[in-house]
Amino acid sequence: MASRTSNELNQLADEGSLLVARANDATTQSEYIIGMCYVMEGEEPEGGRRWEFGGVCVSDEFRGYGIGSALGVLAISSHYLYEPPQKGERLIAHVHKDNSLPWHMLKVQLGFVQVGQETPPSEVVPPGLRRNSKGEVVGDLYEFRISTLGRFADWLETFDGRVEGRNGYLTTNLNLRFFQAYRATAIQALRQLAFSSEAG
Ligand SMILES: CC(C)(COP(=O)(O)OP(=O)(O)OC[C@H]1O[C@@H](n2cnc3c(N)ncnc32)[C@H](O)[C@@H]1OP(=O)(O)O)[C@@H](O)C(=O)NCCC(=O)NCCS
Q1: In the chain, at which residue ranges do the beta strands (DSSP E only) sit?
Q2: Is residue 39 included in any domain, yes or no?
Q3: Across residues 36-53, what is the average pLDDT?
Q4: Which of 101, 155, 158, 162 to mutate to test the pocket of ligand 1 (most atoms within 8 A of CB)?
Q5: Continuous segment of H or E residues that includes residue 53
Q6: Quick check: is 170 in a domain?
Q7: Distance from C-alpha of 190 to C-alpha of 81, rounded to nearest angstrom
Q8: Is 97 helix (H, G, I), strand (E, B) or coil?
Q9: Ligand 1 pocket by C-beta < 6 Å: which residues?
Q10: How many domains does the chain fold into?
Q11: Is residue 1 part of a domain?
Q12: CATH number at residue 19
C-alpha cells in the first residue's frame, strides 16, 4: 500500500526484484507491460527485517485472466530461491482495508493469511487514499505461508506462459530470472523449502 517512487521502482527492476507481464501488440509487433509486482526488503515496525510483496497491479482489460496470481507465484518463488526463509523473518502484503480487489488472489491463489492490521507512517502512504477519523490509512496485514511453495512448484512444473482466470485464458510474457536455465532445480528447491517448513 506504500507508495514507491519511480527511482525505487527502477532500482527494484535493476535488482531483478520487479516482475512484469507483457502482451504483444499485433499491429505494431511490439510488447507492452500489462501487469507488475515486486518483492522488496522492508522493516518490521518494531525493528528487524521483513519482505514485502507489493505493487501488484494488472491493467483493467487484462484482469481476471490469472495474471495477478501468476505474477505473485513467480515473484514469490523467485524471491525464496534467492533469499531462503530465515527464522522469524516474514513475507507480508499490506492492503488498504477497503480494497477488496486482491483478497481472493492473496488468500486463495497465493497462500497469504490475514494476521491483523497495520497503519503505515503517513509519509509513505500515497495521497488520495481514504483515511479514518484520525487521518490514518489503515491496512490489512497478510503473511505468506512458506508451505504454499509446494503448490507453487506444482504450478511452475506445467507453466508454459499460458495463464487462466475467471474470464478465460491468455498467453503472457514474464521476465523470469531463475526460470530459463534452472527450472527443474528451482522446482525441486521450492518443494524442499515447503517440506522443511512443514517439518517444523
Ligand atoms: C488485484 C489484481 C492485481 C488482481 O489481478 P488479476 O490479474 O485480475 O488477478 P487473477 O486473475 O489472478 O485473480 C483474480 C480473480 O480470479 C480468480 N482466479 C484466478 N485463477 C482462476 C481460475 N483458474 N479459475 C477461476 N478463478 C480464478 C482469483 O481467485 C480472483 O478471484 P476474485 O475475482 O474473486 O478476485 C487486480 O485486480 C488489480 O490490479 N487491482 C488494482 C490494484 C490493486 O488493488 N492491487 C492490490 C494492492 S495490494
Answers
A1: 18-25, 30-43, 49-58, 91-96, 112-118, 139-144, 162-165, 168-171, 173-174
A2: yes
A3: 94
A4: 101
A5: strand 49-58
A6: yes
A7: 7
A8: coil
A9: 54, 56-58, 63-69, 95, 99, 101-102, 104-105, 108-109, 164-166
A10: 1
A11: no
A12: 3.40.630.30
Instruction: Please answer whether residues 167 and 65 qualify as being in contact, where contact means their C-beta atoms are separated by less than 8 angstroms.
Output: yes
154 and 137 in contact (C-beta within 8 Å)?
A: no
**pLDDT for 62 beyond 80:** yes
Answering whether pTM is above 0.85, one says yes
pLDDT of 145 above 80: yes
Specify whether the CB–CB gap between 168 and 122 falls below 8 A: no
What's the domain range around 164? 6-199
34 vs 22: CA distance, rounded Å: 5
Distance, CA 106 to ligand 1 centroid (Å)?
9
Where helices occur in 19-122 by DSSP H, the ranges are 67-82, 103-104
* Distance of CA 63 from the midpoint of ligand 1 (Å): 6
Q: Are strands 112-118 and 139-144 parallel, antiparallel or unpaired?
A: antiparallel
128 domain residue, yes or no: yes
> 57: CA distance to ligand 1 center in Å?
9
Predicted confidence at residue 58, as pLDDT, reads 96
